[in-house]
Write a structure and sequence with these properties.
Layout (H helix, E strand, L loop, with lengths): L1 E9 L8 E9 L12 E3 L7 H18 L1 H19 L4 H31 L5 H36 L1
Antiparallel strand pairs: 1-2, 1-3
Helix pairs in contact: 1-2, 2-3, 3-4
């Protein structure tokens, strides 16, 4: 059974104590209804054809790469790294590492984009919790990009030195 939990966070600030509402989906694995919190309400998820689910995912990819500036930057960086991997004929293990790094950075950038849009929808005015959420989300992308850069340097610097 899937339940929707509505969480209301109240914050006293200069805007008159506005509230920030977040929703979380919780899956309960118990067979009995014992111990289910009173704020949990059943959420009926419709089963959709797999083709429709993939269609939504591809729509999300298109939307992201068309509208997000940082997504375009990370995509171009990923393409450049893939071209460098082809040029330097990196090993299979190095390909796996490069592809994983590229996937992690792009995936976190997509999550960052989604989180920022959701925060803007939930709370259009400035709010310190929204700012913190957006900052941490962006930090996750930055952290993965920096570590991916270091990994890329470890893989490519020896190959560049040999090529010189």
């Amino acid at each position: 059974m899937v339940y929707v939990l509505r969480v209301v966070v109240r914050a006293d600030d200069s805007h008159g104590g506005q509230q920030l509402t977040m929703f979380a989906l919780i899956t309960c694995a118990t067979n009995s209804g014992d111990g289910v919190h009173k704020n949990l309400k059943p959420y009926n998820m419709k089963v959709q054809p797999i083709t429709r689910a993939f269609g939504h995912a591809f729509n999300g990819l298109g939307h992201f790469f068309i509208r997000d500036r940082n997504g375009k930057i990370h995509l171009m960086a990923g393409i450049m790294v893939l071209l460098a991997g082809w040029y330097f004929a990196i090993s299979t293990a190095e390909w796996c590492i490069i592809l994983l790094c590229t996937a992690v950075v792009l995936s976190l950038e997509m999550l960052n984009y989604a989180i920022e849009n959701l925060c803007n929808l939930v709370h259009s005015e400035y709010h310190p919790l929204v700012k913190t959420t957006k900052d941490v989300s962006a930090a996750a992308v930055l952290w993965s990009a920096l570590l991916s850069l270091v990994i890329g340097l470890v893989i490519f610097i020896p190959k560049i030195i040999i090529a010189l």
